[in-house]
Here is the input.
Amino acid sequence: MTTPILPGCEPYSTKNGPLGVLVLHGFTGNPTSMRSLAERLARGGFSVELPRLPGHGTSVEDMMTTSWADWSSAALAAYDELALRSSKVAVVGLSMGGGLTAYIGERRDPAALVFINPVVMKPGDELVDGLKELIDSGLSSIESIGSDIKKEGAAEASYAATPLGCVLSLFEGLVEVHRDLGKISAPSLLLSSREDHVVTSDNGDEVVANSSGSVQRIWLENSYHVATLDNDQEIVESSTLVFLDTVLQS
Here is the structure.
């Protein structure tokens, strides 16, 4: 039986011109966190694909059956499909979507990349060992990491719990992502929240230090992790649109 998609969590797709943009949401999130940005890009004339990654936007139990292999394969497949009908393709990602953006940049030839508070490296062994101990004790999930938003009244439609096995799978996948950051040659825009309670800003530092392509960094002073829904939403959307217009139209 297929788990129903939660209302509002559907993927988004629009076919405009030959310039394509793949937009990727974060871990335990869904397309709602990126939909406004995707629609802004579509109004700017881009063909946009915002997929719902496997196990997301349905139920935590559904997500527990998926792993980094599923999310990264889906992201690559979405990129390849968009590339078949586009002259140039850019990738935009939030959080784990940022890690997947790096993953694609390391394995394909995108014209541009946009990272929004990306996670691109595994945390320290102490945290990983602690997660393994929790799983060994029989715990399958912890409280939600979603909706880290400063804006009053704003909320992310993320899961109410975080599946621990999926967290470990993400961390394992990020080992390869971090190792291969030097393979990224596309010009990048990096949007980093000054205060982020989910992903530390040294992940962004690693993109700056290791990417072989140019990296333009903009600091967001009034948003937490989910900056696409926070006080700096307009800065995120307008700077992404200007950057992609400049790079893809050249």
